[in-house]
């Protein structure tokens, strides 16, 4: 029996590192990495998978810089996290850096998806539908790309979903099943959502059995709906919002409102007071030589919001046109033809909510000389023309 004083004792708290290590072991993270990374088991004291596991634990607990990860493990019960008796200094930045380099050169999507699918299997979660979306991460700095790194990720300007178009960025794509991220991708900062949706569809074809592809429903935003992406999906089921820039979208809405009796009443989807009331109408229509099932959804709340916007836009347009009329009406023209030409131009102004009409009026202005007017001399009269408008 070993006896030590309280002063000699070192207190180590298990806490979150043990939980993270447990899930890494449950999902065979080390094995998935080692199976897909190029390394020599006979020469390596620590496998790349074990090094990455150590890095992940630190990343999720304290997020130390690479050169300070070994300091993090000085206050952690290492024997409770790893099968081997590692020391804190074994997790030095050289070893972790080499592991990260090997990981970067490997099949990163394959490693991630292998771990994610194992999580689904262990939890008994059915891969019946997956939600896909992208987001951007804005970064500050120069981030100049070296000539030798043409194939690496490009931190560059693109469509910023953080509303920071002044900053360079990276793009992230994610596919989740019941909230669990099973498909993941990191992309150049200027990657379009349309291209990513097509690329992800091709990746799923390589990752999933054909029967799973035919039964799994992909749920994504309107960026997926392009002619090329629809060809990639083929007969695989998906749910997406139909983009407004398709002429067919307007036709479907018009058809739905023409067939008032075909609406199916859904009702409210919330217990809140004055919740929106929904109704839906489905129809089969051809797009790019393939028949799809479309659903037109009508919301009473959308009607109210649209009416408020229409009223606001109408008021703004009315104020602008009244201001313009005040300016136009104050201009004097010396011939009828000039006034008529300007009137025609002003009346042709494109307005959404108002109709502008007008006429040319002949006006007279008596030119009086300074001083007391004479009883015998008639003051000259100037003839001019103005444009009068009616809204």
Protein topology:
Elements: H1 15-26, H2 29-36, H3 48-61, H4 69-72, H5 93-104, H6 108-123, E1 129-139, E2 168-177, E3 180-187, H7 193-207, H8 210-215, E4 217-220, H9 227-233, E5 238-240, H10 247-258, E6 264-268, E7 277-287, E8 290-299, H11 300-329, H12 336-347, E9 357-366, E10 381-390
Helix pairs in contact: 1-3, 2-3, 2-6, 3-5, 7-9
Annotation keywords:
single chain; 391 residues; alpha+beta; 4 domains; 5-stranded mixed sheet; 3-stranded antiparallel sheet; 12 helices; 10 strands; IS1634_transpos; IS1634 family transposase; DUF4277
Account of the 3D structure:
InterPro entries: DUF4277, IS1634_transpos. It comes from Peribacillus cavernae. The chain is α+β, with helices and mostly antiparallel strands and 391 residues long. The chain folds into 4 domains: 15-106, no CATH class; 126-138 and 154-241, no CATH class; 246-267 and 275-320, no CATH class; 330-390, no CATH class. Helix content is 38%, strand content 21%. It contains 12 helices and 10 strands. Helix 2 (29-36) packs antiparallel against helix 6. The chain is elongated, with a radius of gyration of 35 Å. The mean pLDDT is 86.
Category by helix and strand content: alpha+beta
Question: Mind describing the biggest β-sheet?
Answer: 5 strands, mixed
In total, how many domains does the architecture comprise? 4
Computed over alpha carbons, the radius of gyration is: 35 Å
Q: How many distinct beta strands?
A: 10
Give a brief description.
This protein has helices spanning 15-26, 29-36, 48-61, 69-72, 93-104, 108-123, 193-207, 210-215, 227-233, 247-258, 300-329, 336-347; strands at residues 129-139, 168-177, 180-187, 217-220, 238-240, 264-268, 277-287, 290-299, 357-366, 381-390. By secondary structure, the chain is of the alpha+beta class. The protein has a 5-stranded mixed sheet.
